[in-house]
Amino acid sequence: MKIEKFEDLIAWQKARAFTKMIYAITSTGLFSKDFGLRDQIRRAAVSIMSNLAEGFERGGRAEFHQFVVIAKGSCAEVRSQLYIALDAGYISQQDFDMLYQSAMELSRPRWDCDHLLTNNVSKKSSDSDQPSAGTKSLNSVLSP
Question: How many independent structural domains does the chain possess?
């Protein structure tokens, strides 16, 4: 499958579903009334999918990689905030585990990035965006 727009990225699709889950869980109970934490965790979740979209649309390999790394940082931010929500009694252990696991999956972008970087971004990128022989692969940089 040729990836022509950011909506084709499996990673973006998963980030969208994750953001929907975050919005749902933060819309109920005490969580919905803690405006600071609610808004911050929502912004972090939105940041994941937004950075994947922006990085893809920029068109270059190096820029896409940079935005994927930022998205990974936003995943860590959400995970940290999930601990706060659990400790405050806003979410159950079961909800925490499910959301934490989803965030961890997004933090390990094995997604379709290799395919994208080797086959599809080249239609938009210039030779100056090509990684040098000494550049680490995307997966080696992003994997835990």
Answer: 1
